[in-house]
Prior knowledge:
Elements: E1 2-6, E2 9-14, E3 17-20, H1 21-24, H2 42-51, E4 65-66, E5 75-79, H3 83-88, E6 98-101, E7 107-108, E8 114-116, E9 123-124, E10 127-133, E11 149-156, E12 159-160, H4 161-164, H5 172-175, E13 182-189, E14 201-206, E15 209-215, H6 223-230, E16 241-243, E17 265-270, E18 274-282
Parallel strand pairs: 5-16, 7-13, 8-18
Antiparallel strand pairs: 1-2, 1-4, 1-13, 2-3, 5-6, 9-12, 10-11, 10-16, 11-13, 14-15, 14-17, 17-18
Amino acid sequence: MKFANVSGRATLVIDGKAVDIEQASDGRIGSDPMVYSDLELHSELAELAASVDPAAWPTLDPATLGAPVPRPPKGFGVALNYRSHAIESDKDIPTEPHFFGKTENCVCGPYDEIVVPAGRDMIDYEAEMVIVFGRTCSKATEADAWSYLAGVTCGQDISDRGEQFRPPVKQFTIAKTYDTFGPTGPYLVTSDELDNRDGVGVQGRVDGDVVQDGNTDDLIFSVPALVAWLSRFITFRPGDLVWTGTPGGVGEARTPQLFLRHGMILETEVEGIGTMRNPVVER
């Protein structure tokens, strides 16, 4: 199934049509986009998707799309989780995952502006696949990890490198969670819709030029490994997000370096999900 936040309403996307979940279910399921993050509702949502006539619903207008999970209870990102990114960063391959927080305020939609604070001149991009938890998850195993996930979406882990590496202590969470520094979208897609959920293409483009082109089969710690590792000590709930890491090609590692500037367009494409297109503004 493919879900979307259309003008703040939970929506099933079928054949390019926007099926309003509350209206199609005669009110049995609410309109809040957070509802489709709950795996307890997925059987009913699948029945609904099978019963509706998409032709009776309006064509989806991309301009109406917001973040598919607009109010995640919590979020994490993973540092150096692609081999290509670890190599370009001149770092040893990690032996265990390294996480940082991404808080709700950073989340914005697939076509929203990314706001570069005035005077910050080292704002970087990181194209990612984001996983969405769908049920309470504690002490998962790698074997059952995918069963806890409502689906996946595209994401960007926008990062202020100047703040991230400012001495004396590195500030990953602060530098990566400014307002608008976590675009997600355009859809939440259940993993059964993916051709290969363990090998998903991830591409980032700046002003049309491909700057990142990777695949999740290059992850150092796979999605199941991340879920199992995190849930050892942290309980996850429906709507929690994890940005799973970024492939090589980030702006900081390029020669010359490439940072986001006013007027640029940042595109993020994840295979089987879709493409985000976020304009960059400085203010």
